[in-house]
Amino acid sequence: MMKKKPLACAIGTVLLGMSFPSLAQMDAQNDTGNAVAESELTSTAVVLDAETDTAALAESMAPAVEEVVVTGSRISKDVFSSSSPIDVISVETAELQGLEDLGTLLQTTTVASGSPQVTAASSTAFVQNGGTGAQTISLRGLGANRTLVLLNGRRAGPAGVRGAVSSFDLNTIPLSAVERVEVLKDGASSVYGSDAVAGVVNIITDKGDSSSFNLFTSQPSESGGETTRADFTWANSTDKLRYRLTGDYYKREELAKGDRDYFSCGEQYIFSPSTGERRDVIDPRTGSPRCADLIWGHVWIYDYSGTVPARAKAQYDYDGDLANYIPGFDAFYEGPNSMSTPPGWFPVAYDRTSDGVTNFDHPFQDAESLIPNTEIITLFGETSYDISDDHQIYAEALMSRRDNEVNGYRQFWSYTYNENFFNGNAAPTAQGWTGAQWMSATPITDQNDSTVSIDYTRFVAGITGNLSEDWMYDASIQYSKSDAEYSDQRIFQGHMKANNWGSANGDGTCAGTTTNRGVPCMDLPWFDPRFLNGDFTPEEREFLFGWETGTTEYTQKSFEAFVSGPIMELPAGEMSVALGIHYRTDEILDTPGPITLGGDAWGTSASGITQGKDK
């Protein structure tokens, strides 16, 4: 069996360094004038006679020390130490804390504190590298693309969707396959390259030969966010062969905003500087601070008469009680240019009192995903075979599939005239809206969902061993590919434009014309309270919304090799050197869906195909 096995393999150009081992000297003092009595060391079962000296004892009791390569260097050392600061995170930490995934374990450690992290929740709420559901690690606040992630000392290719795939997704490797994680907190660009400026995270997989089956579940006190994990390990080892296969299934149910009281109502939390009391806007209908999330269902007013309160918006009285709290438009009427509406409409959002009754929290908000529904299936295998006492071949295979489903909602709006301003609006729902104003009706919709599916594969094969008693080598090839699809609900921009301003017919209507998508145009009821509330007919839904699917492929191939060993003895210690080579190619091909490619997605920018190759 080999005695020298690297724990971590760096990416090398040429690294020259010195190792200075601490020298412990023990002087053997022999007194030839005195006889030495026989002694029995019961703890070691070693019997000493008068001719056995202390040096021989120390040598016989010294354990065999394995030289290793630590994260941050390619030079073998006879102690597991490094001049650079390294944190070692054990998987047992996750078990004690009840954590179920590697991303959460790393992102909640001290070494990652103070750095913004990409989590499943943040990548759902915002556009971030890797896409929805991604989990990456950032050190020193420099971002995931400046924090290098290694798997058993070798680069692991990135995974994700869209054109900003740059970092390893921690979802792809399950906790059940990991033994520990070594985190090099110093910048290591001179050893690993520019993507290691912030530091290096080296994930070390479990090399044990025990088989197991585990089942884990986490059930919050309230519904939403439940997790289930099942994994198995099949492993064995002989004198020459070692293999280990791990399968893992992970399921996390969606956590919607409405599942938790502290997410379902966004309060202002304004306090009086003099008394410290809450000064939030109060909703008189509930007597509690107003829930403020996304304003919905209003007609925004662009007034030219000077009679409408500044910032006022028209809101329909769905519950029939707004007259109990605020005045209607009649209170501001001063002549034909003043705004007039059909019955049931009130101006809101122009002062503190009207702010209290402004519709700011739709039921769609409660159904929005805070943490997406996630399902991950992973299979990881590794093996090694000693072809001789000094040479070993090894291989790794990682296959993972992640699926995410996200529920969302949004506003959308038009720009139209009322019944008698400028060219006027002949649409039936515009009747009764008069005055020197034009309008922007702003409906709300839950037709804003998305899904992500990512297949990730990674293969490694290599050979390592000893060239002599002091020199070792390692050479490997790696191939990884992220093959992903992402689907989104879109609003057809051409269908929106057909209803704007003068519209296709020039009078606020478009019926009888054909849209850019080749379908008959529909006059949308922009001023209908039902429509503004997101309650669409099947025909309206089909006319306005559609699904599209884009694809992202990211392929990384690499070859690396290095040798290391001592070259001379110096008074202060042994000088060692490591020589290495690394060659890598990265390719990306991101193809957005046909609606985005054609520039027909309303409320989002058009995007073309992203394609490139880097060596």
Describe this structure in words.
The strands form seven sheets. Strands 1, 9, 10, 11, 19, 20, 25, 26, 27, 28 and 29 form an eleven-stranded antiparallel beta sheet that branches. This protein has a five-stranded mixed beta sheet with strand order 4-7-8-5-6. The protein has a five-stranded antiparallel beta sheet with strand order 17-16-15-23-22, with no helix packed on it. The protein is elongated and about 100 Å long. It is mainly beta and 615 residues long. The longest helix is centred in the first third of the chain and has 8 residues, at 54-61.
Using brief descriptors, characterize the structure shown.
five-stranded mixed β-sheet, mainly beta, elongated, 615 residues, disordered N terminus, eleven-stranded antiparallel β-sheet, 12 helices, 10% helix, single chain
What level of helicity do the residues show? 10-25%
Which spans have pLDDT < 50 for at least 5 consecutive residues? 1-52, 54-69
Helical segment count:
12
Q: How many strands appear in the DSSP assignment?
A: 29
Report strand %: 35-45%
Shape estimate: elongated
Mean pLDDT: 85
Biggest β-sheet description: 11 strands, antiparallel
Class computed from helices, strands and strand pairing: mainly beta
Distance between the termini: 38 Å
Radius of gyration: 34 Å
